[in-house]
Specification:
The complex is a heterodimer of chains A (231) and B (248). With 231 residues, chain A is mainly α. In chain A, helix 2 packs across helix 3 and helix 3 packs antiparallel against helix 6. The longest helix of chain A is centred in the last third of the chain and has 37 residues. The C terminus of chain A is likely disordered. By secondary structure, chain B is an alpha+beta fold. Chain B has a domain of 106 residues: 2-Layer Sandwich (hypothetical protein PF0899 fold), CATH 3.30.2320. Chain B has a 4-stranded mixed sheet with strand order 2-1-3-4. In chain B, a hairpin with a 2-residue loop joins strand 3 and strand 4. Classes of the chains: A mainly alpha (231), B alpha+beta (248). Chains A and B meet through strand 2, helix 1, helix 2, helix 3 and helix 4 of A and helix 1 of B.
């Protein structure tokens, strides 16, 4: 049995070693994009079941963004929703025999964590400018600046490690059990792996949203103190 | 364990490309469809509220119009009732006045008719009474009655002014002594007695002629072309008739 930490290079493309995880990612991208294009070709005012299901996905993600952060979901919908869908489909791709999920590899999870780190900077600067983004490190007071700066790195690192550990361990355990106990025994573990994949996708997306909106909110100018009438 | 940073970068680019693609082929179209339907629903709700507002306004207008119609109807009914009452009162008053007039006219007519009938009855009764009286008096005519009339005649002549008696005596046409009985039936003595009494009463001897007039019933009268001294039951009955007519 190969090490779960090792990546299998399929071919070399310039400096890029094209691993199975990258190819699987491309396949997932093609499936998602083509499927989305096929499903959203004919959207009508009176929705069909297909369109209603699509709208349910979008509405659910919007409501999750709104419930979690209280922010308008429109600016974050594309990034957060895509993160969720990609991680979910990548986690569940382990159900296909012979396919190892891309999220079980360090590079993919690290890339996702780095994208979240960059997106926090991007949305923070977009909302409050560079000053606002820098100001977000001084929340709730300037004493917290070093800790906040350190936290901005460690929190995405923890996301990366959490996702990698959960998915990789699931794949690893299923591989061990399958190699020891036969074909049907890993099925309950695979079902559990489905739940784990869904939960990890949800946690990753929600945490990314929380980090982004925390930076955006901290970077904004101080709201006026509530008066007794407001209270 | 090692990390392939080229692979990491490629995966990051892959995810970024996926974010960009899905934003265009999935998130934006679906959210736009949701927004469009929400907008259409909002427009429908707004249109519905607008129509509801218009309907409520129309209902309020209809209610006001209905109230106005009801008030106009009540006013028209009151006016018609008042007009009808006035017309009824006027017609009643007019009818009462007309009836009173008719009653007064009828009463007047009845009174006149009654009075006329009463007068006619009185006249007829008077005539009948006079006829009966004349008939009865005619049966009562006798020499004693005739003697009484002679006494009355002499007394009446005596009451005449002296001038009248002298003029009557001097009348060249003479004087007629009218009696109810035929002159032939009277005796010469009776005539002589009458002539002597008249001559004595007149204080002269005028020419006296006896004339019979049965209409006198009984009595003696003196007549000349210019003088009449009535002394008979006919004259009495005529006087009574005149008095009754005058009284009526």
């Amino acid at each position: 049995m190969n090490s779960p930490l090792a990546s299998v290079t399929l071919f070399q493309l310039g400096p890029f070693a094209i691993t199975q995880a990258i190819v699987t990612t491309w396949a997932i991208m093609v499936v998602l994009v083509v499927g989305a294009f096929a499903l959203t070709r004919r959207l009508e005012a009176s929705p069909s079941r297909r369109q209603a299901a699509l709208e349910l996905i979008v509405t659910t993600i919007d409501s999750q963004i709104r419930d979690t952060t209280g922010a308008n979901p429109a600016p974050y919908r594309g990034f957060i929703g895509t993160l969720f869908l990609f991680i979910l489909v990548a986690n569940w791709s382990s159900l296909i025999p012979g396919v190892e999920p891309p999220t079980a590899k360090l590079e993919t999870d690290a890339a996702l964590a780095i994208l979240v780190f960059l997106s926090v900077i991007w949305f923070g600067i977009s909302a409050g400018g560079v000053g606002g983004w820098l100001k977000s490190f001084a929340a709730p007071n300037p004493v917290m600046i070093p800790l906040n700066m350190l936290e901005s790195v460690t929190r995405v690192f923890s996301m990366f490690v959490r996702l990698f550990g959960n998915v990789m361990s699931g794949v690893f355990v299923i591989g061990i059990v399958a190699s020891l106990a036969g074909l049907l025994v890993p099925i309950p573990l695979m079902a559990l792996d489905l739940l784990t994949g869904l939960v990890q996708a949800y946690i990753f997306a929600v945490l990314a949203m929380v980090f982004i909106t925390a930076t955006v909110e901290d970077g904004k100018s101080e709201p006026p103190s509530p008066t007794n009438e407001d209270i | 364990m090692s990390i392939d940073f080229w692979g990491l970068g490629l995966q990051a680019v892959n995810v970024l490309i996926l974010v960009w693609l899905l934003s265009r082929v999935f998130w934006r179209p679906v959210s736009a469809a949701i927004a469009n339907r929400q907008k259409a629903a909002t427009a429908l709700i707004a249109d519905g509220k607008d129509k509801q507002g218009k309907a409520e306004a129309a209902l309020a207008e209809a209610t006001r119009a209905r109230d106005g119609i009801a008030q106009e109807r009540t006013a028209a009914l009151d006016a018609a009732r008042a007009e009808a009452e006035a017309a009824t009162k006027a017609a009643l008053e007019q009818a009462r006045t007309k009836a009173d007039t008719l009653l007064v006219a009828a009463k007047t007519t009845i009174d006149k008719t009654t009075e006329a009938a009463r007068k006619a009855n009185a006249t007829e009764a008077t005539g009948l009474a006079l006829t009966i009286a004349a008939d009865l008096l005619g049966r009562m005519a006798s020499p004693a009655v005739q003697s009484g009339f002679l006494s009355h005649l002499i007394a009446a002549i005596g009451k005449m002014p002296e001038g009248d008696r002298a003029a009557l005596v001097d009348d060249p046409a003479g004087i007629e002594i009218v009696t109810a009985l035929d002159a032939g039936e009277k005796g010469a003595a009776e005539r002589k007695k009458i002539v002597q009494a008249v001559h004595k009463a007149l204080g002269g001897t005028p020419d006296l002629r006896f004339v019979t007039d049965q209409d006198l019933i009984a009595g003696l009268e003196l007549r000349s072309p210019h003088f009449v001294l009535r002394n008979s039951w006919q004259a009495d009955l005529a006087q009574i008739t005149k008095a009754v007519k005058d009284a009526a």
